[in-house]
Amino acid sequence: MDVSQTIFEEYTDDLGPEKIIHIYEPVAKLRAIVVIDNVAAGPAIGGVRMAPDLTTTEIMRLARAMTLKNAAAGLPHGGGKAGIIADPKTGDKECLIRMFARAIESLHDYIPGPDMGTDESCMAYIFDEIKWAVGLPRVLGGIPLDEIGATGFGIAECAEVAKEYIDLDLNGARLVVEGFGNVGKNVARFLEEKGASLVAASDTSGTVYNKDGINVSGLIQVKEEKGSVIYYEDAERLKTGDLLKIPGDIFVPAARPDVIDERNVGTLDTKLVIQGANIAITTGAEKALHERGVLSVPDFIANAGGVIAAAVEYRRGSEKEAFSEIKSKIRANTKKILDKTYSEGLYPRDAAEMIAKERVLSAMSYRGCI
Ligand code: NAD
Questions:
Q1: Which of 193, 236, 239, 279 is the 20 to 30 Å CA partner of 70?
Q2: Model pTM?
């Protein structure tokens, strides 16, 4: 079967995706994918990811997650995502980002933001080229999402609401974080403020574990200065994959998609999962967790902090407004989906998708067909 036929038959549904664009620029060797999933509620906001192993289906799934996330958060934006297929440590990064910006100049319904492998500086290069992007540095009027820890802040607020449904005390709760990057380190920082104790964290080089607790600001300093958590001294060093076997109360996946699947979900020893990374857990693994009584809050509810701040930036709001909106929207949404989950006997993802899809379909009902 032809590739486009496969995409139309297997990957499109009543929401989208509306556009799938493959970009190849032969001089700079730029290879990129943009997926605009749905724009019924407004122009799509979604991050630009940079990694060497990105695929079209990954970007499509991430774009759908953005449609649902933006709808669930009640933002006037649809969902999209972009991926630049390259090593984010490449020396040509600025050039690739600028070429990418020029290539998307005609896509007026896609607003790029930072994601894995890109940051505020990358958004500044895009802004310089085409005059629109979110997650910009402060000096360009932006709300630097990663610097303020917008997503991590929202995940900590989500945890504080979710704990009520499983009778978990945040004070002294053991926190395990997979992927100690922008999201992971800020989750650790904000949950530590709420009384939790970080016992383990990982990155691509390994895992550090101390059952008596790891000092979060110390670990952030080590990661920033030396490049990996494994150089933190007051902890046991393990392999990256060993993190999943470490017992805890709260587990936050904040690295890559599909890290928890049907094969390894049984090793996870936790009470509450707050999904920091997008599509970090397969649907089957989520269901297995639910059957075991482990509450897992879906990605597009828990990690909406960054995009809520981006939407505030897009309408020229302040950092203070961003924090207040993240707090109120994420707390209200978490409560809404968990009330529905437990009162109607649903899986959390099904409850969340029902609420989000209803909003997208309602926005779509105003679109003309000619
Ligand atoms: P980042 O690049 O800053 O950090 C990712 C971290 O994960 C790095 O420390 C990396 O070493 C580590 N990592 C990668 N693969 C790993 C693996 N297999 N095991 C353990 N660690 C691994 O990225 P980020 O901005 O923190 O984003 C992390 C995830 O959260 C992504 O899935 C992203 O889409 C999602 N997300 C980010 C934001 C945001 O505001 N930054 C918002 C919503 C969702």
A1: 193
A2: 0.92
Q: Indicate the helix (H) or strand (E) that contains 38.
A: strand 30-38
User: What is the number of domains present in the chain?
Assistant: 2
Whether pLDDT at 83 is above 60: yes
**Could you report the per-residue pLDDT of 132-170, keeping only the tens digit for each?**
999 999 999 999 888 899 999 999 999 999 999 998 999
Residue 368 lies inside a defined structural domain of this protein: no
User: How far is the C-alpha of 280 from the C-alpha of 159, rounded, in Å?
Assistant: 17
On whether residue 316 sits in a domain, the answer given is: no
Helix axes 182-193, 216-226, angle to 10 degrees: 160
Using CB distances shorter than 6 Å, the residues near ligand 1 are 115-117, 145-146, 151, 178-184, 202-204, 240, 254-256, 276-278, 303, 306
Cross-strand partners of 198: 175
193 and 125, same domain (yes or no): no
Atom of ligand 1 lying closest to residue 88 CA? 2
Domain with 214 in it: what CATH number?
3.40.50.720
Residue 1 confidence (pLDDT): 64
pLDDT cut 70: percent of the chain above it: 99
